[in-house]
Structures are given as structure tokens and as C-alpha cells.
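Q: Glutamate dehydrogenase, please. Structure only.
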Amino acid sequence: KQRDPHQTEFHQAVEEVLRSLWPFLQDNPHYAKAGILERLVEPERAIQFRVPWVDDQGVVQVNRGFRVQMNSAIGPYKGGLRFHPSVNLSVLKFLAFEQVFKNSLTSLPMGGGKGGADFNPKGKSDGEVMRFCQSFMSELYRHIGANLDVPAGDIGVGGREIGYLFGQYKRLANEFASVLTGKGLAYGGSLIRPEATGYGCVYFAEEMLKRKQLGFEGKKVCISGSGNVSQYAAQKVMELGGRVISLSDSQGTLVIEAGLDQEQWHYLMDLKNRRRGRIREMAEHFALPFLEGQTPWHLPCDIALPCATQNELSSEDARTLLKNGCICVAEGANMPATLEAVEVFIEAGTLYAPGKAANAGGVATSGLEMSQNAMRLHWSGGEVDEKLHNIMQNIHQACVRYGEENGRINYVKGANIAGFVKVADAMLEQGVV
Ligand code: NDP
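A: Structure for Glutamate dehydrogenase:
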């Protein structure tokens, strides 16, 4: 905290991990002796660079680009790129730190990294987004590689942006390498990658519920956000017989008391991915209530899936959810619940899954995309989905193995210890580097 006093998001993420790791570290002092913690919180490398581009009016714009290469003990750096005005080094270090544990949990050989820019893609033309992506990659390309660092999408970076980034990489490096995941199907992408984070989050919640002889059938489910993760979490909940009663964006919450139906889901996909519109338009189109400036957490529900962004669910929201009967919370987003909100859930014994476990399906499927690229073959959607499902079940089991506490499962503790052990052991074996 003394070294980087303003990096509040990063401190929050580290504190959450350390709180639950502490007793484990005391029982296993060899990790402390080797300075594992001190090394884990310091990125192996953090790159910051200028991203100049020309907008449609011919005016030169300058954004700030980053790549944080956090830890490569168990494989090449892997983690998304985020384009959002709120991006800064603190946010990316928190995301990269989380990514190290998450990637370890998937059991695939991937280290942790994260990157992005304070660029806002909202309201920009395709041409502007392309020029920005090309400029961003003109610097990033020298720091990534199929065996070095393989970025993917995140907030503000979807299929369109990955395409532009990949095109520019190929041109500069003069080779067709697997340096990005989330690619289009025509040029090396994997089936089920767009669905993976949302589906994976619901698979994880399903496992938690199963241990209590419960399921999604007939349950009211609150989802926040309306982007990639929310869209496919909603689809999987519907498939399992749950009722999706909300979606949101940074302007407010759409309430669908009767539960989202197929027609509405297809409208959502077109609205957000092709027309790039706002969720408010969906409320207007279907004459549904729209709660201006509000999050969904005060709506009575059985299951909550926060799928928008960090710190979108406060301790007060957590208490309201519990008061209204919510029994299960699985994070599709990264760190959507504040530290205090997490404490409320854990104290109440709620089935609460942190993002590093519940949203690991996205990066796991990115890992499967890398495998397919390396083998130069293409698995069917069914095959990828089955592998994703197995990975989520295995992550759940790992959390149960390490998370037992007073007859309950503390999924935060389980995910942190399970993710830590593999990375820490690899670091021990590799010496002080
Ligand atoms: P998208 O850009 O597709 O969607 C983001 C959604 O969150 C939008 O509805 C957006 O609304 C909302 N949102 C973003 N910032 C804010 C904010 N400050 N306040 C309120 N709402 C906000 O991103 P994804 O769906 O890909 O990512 C969502 C979350 O999931 C992020 O935390 C991301 O790190 C995490 N994640 C994503 C993975 C993936 O595979 N995509 C993998 C693992 C985690 P608006 O349009 O108004 O900004």
C-alpha cells in the first residue's frame, strides 16, 4: 500500500486473497520463507504506452495503453484486454492478479496477465474502432506471442475488436500465430468461446445448488449487465428452467417479472451486438419497466448473477438480497461484490462463488482455443461445451476440497487456496526469479 497508495482496486483484490490464505500460509511456512507472496503481488512486467489515432473529424486523439504481465510460473501470460474510460494501472493489476489464480484453477497451463486502454468504444464508428485497435497493436505486438502472452477480450473488446487487433498483429509480425483468443470462427476461433463465461458461471452455480439438492428449475434469477457474459448466462438459465427477471447497463435496470423469453433474448442479442444500443431500448420495445440509475439487487430473487463490472454490489445490496430470500450468488464479472459484501455472504452461509472460480469458463475455453490452434484442428460445439462443463465441475470440486469450514464450504477460501498452491509450487521449483 505504501508503494502504490492510489491503487485501491489492486489493494482490494490482494486483501481478499490474503485474508483467506493467511491461516493456510501459517500452516505452510515454506511459502513465506521463499517470498512467494511478495513476488506474487509484483507484476513480472507492466508496460504502458501511447495510443495515438485519428477520429472521423480528422482530429488526433491520444489514449493510454497497458499490458500487465503478472505471473508466468505455470504458462504463458493469458488474460483479456479491456477498453473502458475507467481503465488504469490499478484496475489492470487487480484483474491480472485475479487472473493468475483463475487460470491456475482451470488446470490448464496458463499464467496471468491483463491489459487494455482508457479508450471508450461507445459511440465510435467502426472505422474509429479499427484505427484505434491498429494503433494499440502497433505497440502491443512486440510484447505478445503464442508462447509468451496471449490476450483475449473483456469489457469493450468483443469479436469486432479482436478481429482488428489480429489483422494488425499478422501484418506487423508477418505470421499467422495464435496470439489472441476470442477470434472469429473463420480464422481460428473456437465454437462456444462467446458463450463460455456465461455458461460456465451457470454451470458453477448449478454445482453449488446440487450439493443442496437444489437446481435452477422455477428459480427467479437476477442478472446484472447486458454484455457478453450476461447474454449467455441468461440463455443457460432459461435452458435450465430458471426465470431471468433482470438485465442492466450503466444507465439502469430492465425488469422482466414474467421472465425473459426467447423472442426477448434474440432481441437483446441483436440490440447489443449488432445495433450496439442501450438496454433502455429493450424496455421501450417490450413495454417493460426500466429503473433509471438503479442496479437490480433490490428485486426479490432466489439467485443473483452479477455479470457487469467491479464493485457493483455493496454490503447493503448483499443484505437486501439475503432479506429477500436469495440463496445463491455466482459472480460472472470480476470482483463485482465489495469486500464488505463478500463478508455478508460468507457470514450468512450463502452459496457464494467468487469470480475467479465462477467466471473461469471464459479463459478455460480460450485455453481450449489455443490447444485447437496448436493442433490445427477444430472441435465441435458439443465437444467444447462438454470440456467446459467438466472444467467447471472440477473447479467446483477443488473449491470444495480446500474450502471446508465449520461444516460449510467457503468458496472464496477454496478458490484462493486451490489457485495458489499450483502457482506457488511452480515458483518454488523454479527458484527465485
Ligand atoms: P461487455 O463489454 O460485453 O459488457 C459489460 C456490461 O457491463 C455492459 O452491460 C455494461 O453496460 C456493464 N458495465 C460496464 N461497466 C459498468 C459500470 N461501471 N457500471 C455499470 N455497468 C457497467 O463485457 P463482458 O460481458 O465481457 O464482461 C463483464 C464482466 O465479466 C467484466 O467484469 C469482465 O471482466 C468479466 N469477465 C468477462 C469474461 C469474458 O469472457 N467476456 C471472462 C471473465 C470475466 P454499459 O454498456 O452501459 O457500459
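A: Brief note, in case it's useful. The chain is about 50% helix and 15% strand.
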